[in-house]
Design brief:
single chain; alpha+beta; 8 strands; binds iron/sulfur cluster
Length: 288
């Protein structure tokens, strides 16, 4: 199959993650800047705290069950922070002073304490942590994502768990929050042949849990929704039209300087980014 001057290679089509798909739903231009142009974005201390807390909760389950105490989890925080800084010393620039850093670490410790009020890790034996799943669904669409925790009951029933360091959404937005879990449920179903029995979002910010027991029909219609979204992404890629869509999320968008909704100019769409998104090869050049 050909698209313009290039040849489609379905095997190399870019994988979609829940966050990239959500980007497109929220604002196609934001999707373009992140996924096609791959523009760098400044790190945020809130996102970094999420990374740190996730790392601690993942490492907690390296310990024998009896040793998974709140104190043991707190003791993991500093070494995990040191490991993050060793990988990227620029992270320290996010903090204005040692006090600022200390208060940020204390917030991380409080989130970990909240975790112990929600679950008892001494009673859990996860089947997987930070599991990378990649699977092809209908129409050769490739999905990819990291699942924080997979629990498997003695009956074989699977529960997918995702930790959130923010607060739980209002009821109006809970279906949207479960989008990511449906995405993972569909991947696990397609990979293992059985849909997960339960999807669980653990909000450490306010100690609430959101659960959904997905029905296969629900996941089938979700798959159709993803197929439709991918078709819209492909259409944007072919036309180069990724419109800006203003929303309440704009204040947190780092692409405002390049956004026409905020007076910015949109640069030309990079051809290589479109090729990578669609899974296409550029034609060989003469002598190439
Ligand atoms: S500022 Fe708003 S409209 Fe502009 S790219 Fe970002 S999310 Fe889209």
């Amino acid at each position: 199959m050909s698209v313009g001057r290039v040849t489609v290679d379905p095997v190399r089509r870019a994988a979609m993650s829940p966050s990239r798909v959500k980007d497109f739903q929220q604002c196609p231009l934001k999707f373009r800047y992140r996924t096609v142009d791959r523009l760098p974005e400044p790190p945020s201390s809130a996102a970094l705290r999420g990374t740190l807390v996730h790392a601690v909760l993942e490492r907690l389950y390296d310990l024998p069950a009896a040793g998974r105490t709140e104190d043991a989890a707190h003791a993991l925080l500093d070494p995990q922070w040191a490991a993050l800084v060793a990988r990227d010393p620029d992270l320290l620039r996010l903090f204005t002073s040692q006090d600022d850093l200390a208060s940020w670490l204390a917030q991380g410790r409080a989130l970990i304490s909240n975790y112990f009020r929600m679950e008892n890790p001494r009673r859990l034996e996860p089947a997987a942590r930070e599991r990378l799943v990649e699977v092809e669904i209908a129409d050769g669409i490739l999905l990819r994502g990291y699942i924080d925790r997979v629990d498997r009951a003695a009956t074989g029933a699977i529960r997918l768990v995702d930790y959130k360091t923010g607060k739980s959404p209002s009821e109006r937005f809970s279906a949207e929050a479960l989008f990511q879990m449906r995405f993972y449920a569909l991947m696990v179903w397609r990979l293992e042949g059985t849909p997960p029995a339960r999807l669980q979002l653990v909000y450490l910010g306010d100690g609430r849990t959101l659960t959904l027991d997905p029905h296969p029909e629900d996941l089938i219609s979700f798959e159709a929704e993803l197929t439709g979204l991918w078709e819209r992404i492909e259409a944007s890629a072919h036309t180069g039209d990724f419109p800006a869509r203003r929303s309440a999320l704009c204040p947190w968008c780092s692409f405002q300087p390049l956004c026409p909704a905020f007076g910015g100019n949109v640069p030309p769409v990079p051809e290589e980014g479109i090729s990578a998104l669609l899974g296409v090869r550029r034609p060989a050049t003469a002598g190439g």
